[in-house]
Structures are given as structure tokens and as C-alpha cells.
Amino acid sequence: MSDLSIQCKIPDLNCYNANMTKVYDLHCHSTASDGVLSPEEVVMRAVTNGVNVLALTDHDDTSGLAAAKAKASLTELEFINGIELSVSWSHQTIHIVGLHINPETESLQSGLETLCQFRNWRAEEIAKRLEKKGITGAFEGASQFASGPILSRTHFARFLLQQGYAKDMRQVFKRYLVSGKPGYVPGKWATLEDALQWINDANGMAIIAHPARYRLSATRMRQLLAEFKELGGVAIEVVSGSHSKDDVHNMAEMANRFEFAASVGSDFHSPDNQYTDLGRFCPIPSKCTPIWQLDRWKEIVSSSQVSD
Q1: Using an 8 Å Cβ cutoff, are 205 and 235 in contact?
Q2: Which of 14, 241, 251, 259 would disulfide-bridge 266, Cβ 3.0–4.6 Å?
Q3: Under the phi-then-psi rule, with left for phi > 0, alpha for psi from -120 to 50, and beta for the rest, what region is 19?
Q4: 114-177, what's its fold?
Q5: Is 220:280 a contact under the CB 8 Å cutoff?
Q6: What is the CA radius of gyration of the chain?
Q7: 141-183, pLDDT tens digit by residue?
Q8: Residues 129-140: what's their mean pLDDT?
Q9: How far apart are CA 100 and CA 193, in angstroms?
């Protein structure tokens, strides 16, 4: 991790802009996908960390939302139904966060079922490829780390780490689970158009997750943002647990250039990583428009309060 990254991810609640009256974390994971805490535990950790508004955004799955929302209703935390959809775009996997979604939307659930089927096949294929390299029992081993319906690369990484094949999660991915390595299986995910359609059908708001993580040239990044905007995307994650200080600056410039709102999220998976803990990250640059200041967001919140 770079010095800039460490400087940016100060684990201090005072890192927020002084004019922010609430602390938002709009991207995190539970055991419903590849997190290590249950949905209820994620909610309580957010409360402990001083988060006021939380979105649970598990990978391609909404099964944890009801439990998280029920737990949040016993606290002062404002809870948002979310999702993180896997997308194949330009031979890369891109993640799209959907906020304020109606998880019961038929087209969304139908799309998630398709993604789940691919995930199941991919998990079996990862295990087969690892076995060819002499690593046996990977499917069963990874399954022991999965509490929900999703079996992801992260679960395989935890198994490999447990077996001593690497010293940390970053190293195990680099050695076994990325392109060109023994356990890598190319993604065949949703199209960007389909993902945006599912989120829009569910009356949600679409955000590109951690855009600085993608290995895209400046030209390809502009193409992604332009296509995303044309399809109805409203924001990008300017601030992410995986963004360095320079990344935040660059993504703020991109957000303003394409007239996107700025979202913020820790991308929390585990308490073991202090740099991606709930509510602990850089402030949104003052030149950006936070997503919660959009009229659409305010309308959704107002409508939700009336229905409650």
C-alpha cells in the first residue's frame, strides 16, 4: 500500500468535512457475499463507528438486506437497500453499485439468478484449475468460509491463505486468482446496459464502484463514464476504501467533468483491514456534489419516510 493511500485512509471520524452533518458509508459487504460479518453485525459495527447512513451492497445478492434493515430499525442508523453488480465491459470486470433499490423487483432478481448460476460454475472451475496445480480440496475449503449463497474468489483466497500458500490476501490473489494465474477464470457477467436496467427497474440509483481500481487507459475510462451516463448512471465513487489520495483527486475531476455526483464507501469486508473499516475514509472534495444532495435522493428518502 502506498504512502499516499495510508495518508488518505485515516481511521478517525474527524476526517470528514466540517459541514457534513451525517457520516455516510454507501458500500460494504456481509456474509451474504464475501464479507466476514453477518448483516446484523455490519449494522452494529457501523453504529459503533459513528456511521449515520449505511448501504449494504453485497455482490450480486440481496439476501442480507432484510436482516440488516431489521437490525438498523432498532438503532438510529438510516439504512439503505443496496447491491453491487458484476459487469463485463471491455474485457474487464466492472462493479456497479445500486442504491435505494427495491430488492423484490422481478427483473433484478432474474438477473441475479443468472449471475448466481455463473458464480456456481466459476467456483467449480476455479477448484478444478487449482487442483491441476496440485492444490486439492479447494471447493470444499472455500465453501467453509461462505455463509451465504455466494462463493467468490475471496472465499478461495481465504482457503489458500489458511493452507499457507501466501502470507496475506493481496499476495494470494496475485499468485493464484488474477489473470494469468492458476485459479483465474474470466468473468462472464452482466452487460453494463443490463445492470443499469435492473437498477433502474428497481427504482435505484447507479454508481460506478471504486473506478480508480480498473486498469483502463484514460481514453477507455472516458468511454466507460460516457456510456454509463448515457444509460442512466448518476454517480461514481470518488472516495473509496481502496482509493489513494491522488485517486480521490482524479476521480473528483472525472465526476465534475461528466457531471456525476460523488459517492463514498469503505468497501468494508472485514474488521481485520483497518484501512477499509466502516465510516473511516477521506472526505468528499468540496468541489463535488455528494449523491445525497441530488433531488432524486431526496425524493426517495422523503417517499420512504412517508411510507414508513
Answers
A1: yes
A2: 241
A3: alpha
A4: DNA polymerase; domain 1 (1.10.150)
A5: no
A6: 19
A7: 999 998 878 889 999 999 999 999 999 988 999 999 998 999 9
A8: 96
A9: 19
Q: What residue has cell string 469486508?
A: 269
Cα–Cα dist 210/187, whole Å = 18
Q: How many residues does the chain have?
A: 308
Neighbours of 82 (CB within 10 A): 27
Question: Environment class of residue 134 by beta-carbon count within 10 Å: exposed (0-12), middle (13-18) or buried (19+)?
Answer: exposed
Beta strand 92-99 pairing with 205-208: antiparallel
Cell of 279: 465510516
CA distances from 211 to 103, 255, 301 (A): 24, 11, 26
Q: Give the position of cell 467453509.
A: 144
Cell triple for 29: 459487504
**Whether domain 3-7+22-106+190-307 has CATH 3.40.50.720:** no
Distance of CA 255 to CAs 109, 180, 241, 277, Å?
Answer: 30, 32, 17, 24
3-state secondary structure of 236: strand
Average pLDDT over residues 57-65: 97
> What type of residue sits at position 213?
R
